[in-house]
């Protein structure tokens, strides 16, 4: 089996992957070939949400996507949420999860952050049903989701306040 060269735009940066094999998942390539360990590998069946990323702005379970299928695409991982131009400044959703104490073991957090960020890009004031639906594909085994829901509300409020002030969160 020969390796293919993949060209991906990862978190805004063009990356070439020269040693990817045709059957490798996008999650494997991100973690093992590109050293982006934020997306987690929990179930490898798309059931847990821990490997959620955006491919061309669509949320996908990276464990179910062949890396070759993402060739030429733009991929955003949890590492790409923070504003690199601001140094180590966390994204609003990341800060909200910390402020609400929603981070426990951390395994589900990357996927939840990706799902919440996508939700809040589309809806600045989501109702409870919208929030629950947005995170329904993400399993957390440590919490009862109370602090996670609190974090989502904090992030939404932060984005609304930033929007009212004309600031991009």
Describe the structure.
This protein has helices spanning 26-33, 92-99, 109-122, 128-134, 146-164; strands spanning 4-10, 13-20, 52-55, 58-61, 74-76. It has 169 residues and is α+β, with helices and mostly antiparallel strands. The protein is globular, with a radius of gyration of 16 Å. The termini are far apart.
User: Rg from C-alpha positions?
Assistant: 16 Å
What are the low-pLDDT stretches, counting only 5+ consecutive residues below 50? Answer: none
Looking at the structure, what is the overall shape? globular
Order of helices and strands: EEHEEEHHHH
* N-C termini distance: 45 Å
Largest sheet: 5 strands, mixed
Q: Helix share of residues?
A: 25-40%
User: What proportion of the residues form beta strands (DSSP E)?
Assistant: 15-25%
Number of helices: 5
Instruction: Give the rounded overall mean pLDDT.
Output: 91
Number of strands: 5
Major sheet: arrangement of strands: 2-1-5-3-4
Helix/strand-derived category reads alpha+beta
């Amino acid at each position: 089996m020969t390796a293919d060269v993949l060209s991906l735009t990862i978190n805004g940066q063009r990356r070439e992957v020269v040693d990817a094999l045709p059957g490798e998942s996008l999650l494997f390539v991100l973690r093992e070939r590109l050293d982006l360990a934020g997306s987690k590998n929990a179930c490898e069946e798309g059931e847990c949400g821990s490997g959620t990323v955006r491919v061309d702005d669509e949320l996908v379970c990276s464990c179910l996507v062949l890396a070759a299928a993402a060739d030429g695409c733009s991929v955003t991982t949890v590492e790409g949420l923070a504003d690199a131009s601001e140094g180590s400044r966390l994204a609003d959703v990341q800060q909200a999860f910390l402020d609400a104490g929603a981070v426990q073991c951390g395994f589900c957090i990357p996927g939840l952050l990706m799902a919440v960020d996508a939700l809040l890009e589309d809806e600045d004031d989501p109702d409870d049903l919208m929030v629950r639906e947005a995170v329904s594909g993400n399993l957390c085994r440590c919490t009862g989701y109370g602090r996670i829901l609190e974090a989502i509300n904090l992030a939404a409020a932060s984005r609304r306040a930033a929007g009212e002030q004309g600031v991009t969160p």
